[in-house]
Every structure is written in C-alpha cells, then in structure tokens.
Specification:
Elements (H helix, E strand, L loop, with lengths): L34 E16 L26 E16 L5 E14 L21 E11 L4 E8 L21 E11 L2 E11 L3 E3 L6 E3 L6 E10 L3 H9 L4 E16 L19 E18 L2 E14 L14 E14 L6 E10 L51 H6 L5 E15 L2 E14 L11 E14 L3 E12 L17 E11 L1
Antiparallel strand pairs: 1-2, 1-20, 2-3, 3-4, 4-5, 5-6, 6-7, 7-10, 8-9, 10-11, 11-12, 12-13, 13-14, 14-15, 15-16, 16-17, 17-18, 18-19, 19-20
C-alpha cells in the first residue's frame, strides 16, 4: 500500500481557482451585482521520443523502460500529441462575501488522432472519449466575521509543490485535490488554517431511489486533519516591495495526521471476477501517517531563494490485502525529501541564472517504487519499478516520492521513472531574453540535471550514478495569452541504468525528446 500523504494547501496562483489558502478570501469583495469570472487555457503538445527504452533490453521481470514501436522495435522512435481544455469558473454572490468555484477539464490529455470514427484510413470525425468532461473541483467559500470557511473538493498545494501540487502549470498532467472543510483566519500578521479531509470513503451503496449513496462501514473511511500557519505576501505586495528595493521573507509549515481503522481491498483492487462486498471482505488495517512540511522564501529585488522539506512517518499495523490472512509484522515508513530553488536576476530582467537541487529518501530494495498501484508485486533485482514493501520479507517503505507534477527534467524522472524518488539531483539553469517587442517576448532557457540514486540496490544497474540530462527550450509568449515553446532534451544515462543481468552487460544508450507546447490562455 503506498504511503501517501495529502498536505494542506498554502501557495497562491493567479486566476480564478486558488490552489492555496493564502488568499483568505481576497477575491471576495463586498457590494455590486453577481459576478461570473472564467479563466483557463487550451493546450496542444506534439512530441517525438527517441530511445526512451535506452536500448538496454528488458529487466529480469520482463519490464522495458518505455514502449517500443510495434513494426520496427529497433527504430526506437515514437510520436505522440495530446490536448487539454481547462476552465476555472467562479460565481460571486451579490454581497461579495460568498463564492462558488469550479474547475472543468475537457478532452483531458486526450491523444490527437485517437478515437477516429470508422477505419483509420478514411476517418473524418472522432468519437467522444469515455470521460470527455471531468469536473476536477467544486467548492464554496464564505467570509465570516472570524475568517474564511471553505468546503468541497478544492485544490491542494503547499509551498513549491514538492509534496502537494495542484497541477496548475501549462505543462502539468495531474490535478491534486482534497475533499475538505477548512477554516482560515489572519491573526497577528500570520495566516492560520485548520481542515478536516474526507480522504477516502467506501464501500458505498445507493440509498432508496438511487439518488445518493451511503458508506457501509465508517471504520473503513480514511480521514485527515490538517493544521498550517504561514507568513505570506501576495504577488501585488511583493511587486511593490521589489520596486521599493525591499526584501521580503515568507515562510510556513503544516502538520497533517491521517488514519484508517479497517479496509475493504475488494472495493478497489482490480480483479478478473467481481467480488461481492460482504462482512468477510473487511481487513483490519490500523493505518496512521503523520506529515510535517516546512517552506521558506527569500525575495530580494534581484534574486529569489526558496526551499521546502517534508517528513512522513507512517505505520500500517496490518498490511494484508487478503481477508482472513494476517501478516506477523507491521509495515512502517520513514520518508523525507527536500528541494532548493534559486534565481539571480529580477523577474523582468533580460537574463537570469540559478541553481536548484533536491533529494528524496530511498529504500534498500529493488526498483524505484514510483507511482506503484495497490497490489503491485515487489520488484526483482534489476527491475526499474515495483512495490517497495514485500511483507513478511520486507516491512519498510522508506522511499519518498515527489509529486509527479513537480518537474525537474523532461525524460528520466518525468517519463521513465515517473517521479523523483530515491535520488539526489543538481540542476543549474539559465535564461535569456532574445527579443522583446510590444506584447511579445522571445526567450531561451537551458537547464542541466545530474542525478544519483541514494540506494544503489534500487537501480537496475546496481550503481548510484543515474544520468546527465540537458534540456534547452525556445519560448515565445504574448501578453494576449498565447505561448509557444519548443523543447528539446537529451539524456546521457550512467551505470545505474545499465543492464547487468545479461552477458555481456548492455550499457544504457542516450535518449532524446523534441516537444512543442502550444497554449492559448484566457
């Protein structure tokens, strides 16, 4: 079972939907008539991928690092394009103190050319995907004399987004949210917040009339309580302070506790034959997790330094997924991670340089254990991925996982491993404005990512060095809302990704990526 923790949101995003709690109802203003505000974007992302399997062959379990072309596997060349239409809607009541906010994604990450009607050779139209429209968030906010009360499914972001990330960037793929009731209030120059999360409920059955559902057992629900305190300045205040040559320091932290007494694995595990949900399917769980996260940001008129760190302590008293089969020992997890970001150069400066780094704790067992679904088998030595815990033989899951929308590269962690885990990386970067005319700006950026595994046993090559990736990009953006970015990436893998399970060993080969991001922001 993955030891994941949902963090209390606390970072702000420009736009209708606020991912964090730092606004404390700043967009709720009194007076006037009802107001409807909409923003969002439409994006298209075509890309070419070469040798993402690194030409190193399958792992001992038959895993390949990335799919291969069906007709000519030796070409190692794949292409893909997808799209997304995201709309954030806010409706404000006449008094201005109440708002309802909704996020809707249409054709979310749907592949261009997919679901062609009829034979591919004669396609002239396309079928709608199974879920053409996804309501990601829906929640209400109300200003009271004591503070802001919010309830519903809302965005979940904290700090830099290393642990809790709302997935709001133009190139993000996910959307992290929380079903919660939260209260926030400003006091003594700080923002104080507390929340109760309905993290997971089930099994559920319909009531009479099939209009609503009811949970079959409260002891199987997963709940989380969150507490946060922050010192925070909004973007307008930061801009004014920068213009005046002042330094701004913001910081915050949160604590979250999650628990579950019993579980019904038959309600969520994938099986060939549906399993009837009866009292015999209840498994004792005794799951608890405590999350501690700290964030700090120093803003100078000419520089930014920002950091975040997380510690997760988790315990599963009974990790069995099979009713009636109990394991002799609990499964525990001690997971930690941290990131540092820095930029030298004012936000509107024509140039900028910086240095980022990060680390995610590892686990001395095979495979990286990234984004593993419940019930997945444990990895074998030499595998890329697999479950970290393997009770009763391995009763620890200590690898911390960054949010997959916390992007540090374009190939290794984002597309091959899936996220940053069991690794340390260094990431220098630079940007330069090439041309600026009226509403349009043309700029270039480049960053390099050197990475090492913390536990060599996790790597397929049983070695710590993972690789060096060089990622340049050329970006055109207009203040009208159009963005076009041409991205390139080259991964030079090191010994940790080699295939040492064959004779002679096969060295992992370089991989390349070319991607075009077109975004229409409204």
């Amino acid at each position: 079972m993955p030891l994941l923790a949902l963090a209390l949101a606390a970072a702000n995003r420009a736009g209708v939907i606020q991912d964090g709690w730092t606004d404390v109802g700043q967009d709720l203003e009194g007076g006037g008539q009802p107001i409807v505000a909409v923003d969002g974007y439409y994006r298209v992302r075509p890309e070419l991928m070469y040798d993402f399997d690194l030409s190193r062959g399958p792992t001992p379990s038959g895993q390949i690092f990335f799919p291969l072309p069906l007709s000519n596997p030796s070409s190692h060349l794949l292409d893909f394009a997808d799209m997304r239409l995201r709309s954030d809607l806010a409706v404000y009541a006449p008094g201005g103190g109440v708002a309802v906010k909704v996020r809707v994604d249409a054709l979310d990450n749907v592949a261009l050319g997919s679901l062609a009607a009829g034979a591919p050779q004669s396609a002239t139209s396309y079928l709608s995907p199974a879920q053409p429209i996804l309501v990601r968030r829906a929640y209400g906010e109300a200003l009271t004399p004591l503070g802001l009360l919010a309830a519903g499914r809302m965005g979940n972001q904290f700090g830099l987004g290393m642990t809790a990330n709302g997935g709001d960037c133009l190139d993000c793929d996910y959307d992290q949210s929380a079903d919660r009731i939260a209260f926030l209030t400003p006091l003594l120059g700080l923002i104080w917040a507390a929340a109760f999360d309905f993290t997971a409920a089930g099994p559920l059955v319909p009531r009479v009339g099939n209009t609503t559902l009811v949970g079959l057992d409260p002891s199987t629900d997963v709940h989380t309580v969150d507490f946060a305190v922050l010192r925070w300045h909004d973007p307008d205040s930061i801009e004014r302070r920068r213009a005046a040559g002042e330094t701004t320091f913001d910081a915050g932290g949160f604590y979250a506790h999650r628990w579950q007494e019993n579980d019904v694995p038959a309600d969520y595990l994938v099986t060939n034959v549906p399993v009837a949900i009866t009292p015999s399917q209840v498994v004792p769980r005794g799951y608890t997790a405590d999350v501690f996260d700290g964030w700090a940001r120093l803003l100078l008129p000419w520089a930014r330094v920002e950091a975040e760190g997380t510690l997760i302590l988790a315990d599963i008293a009974q990790a069995s997924l099979v009713p009636g089969v109990l394991l002799p020992h609990p499964v525990t997890g001690t997971q930690w991670g941290g990131v540092l970001q820095s930029d030298i150069g004012a936000p509107r400066s024509p140039w900028g340089v910086g240095f980022d780094s990060g680390v995610a704790s590892g686990d001395p067992s095979p495979g990286f254990g990234a984004l593993v679904p419940p019930g997945a088998p444990a990895a074998r030595p030499g595998d890329l991925n697999g479950a970290k815990g393997n009770p009763p033989y391995d009763d620890t899951v200590d690898n911390f996982q960054f949010s997959p929308d916390y992007h540090i590269d374009r190939i290794l962690f984002r597309n091959i491993i899936g996220t940053v885990t069991d690794a340390f990386y260094l990431r220098p970067h630079a940007r330069l404005t090439l041309a600026h005319s009226g509403k349009a700006r043309l700029s270039a950026e480049v960053f390099a990512v050197a990475s090492w595994a913390l536990d060599a046993a996790s790597t397929p090559g049983d070695a710590s060095p993972l690789g060096l990736e060089i990622d340049p990009a050329l970006r055109y953006e207009s203040s009208d809302g159009f963005v076009a970015e041409l991205q390139y990436a080259a991964l030079f893998p090191f010994a940790g990704l080699d295939n040492i399970d064959v004779t002679p060993p096969i060295a992992a080969q370089p991989a390349q990526l070319v991607r075009l991001l077109l975004a229409y922001v409204f």
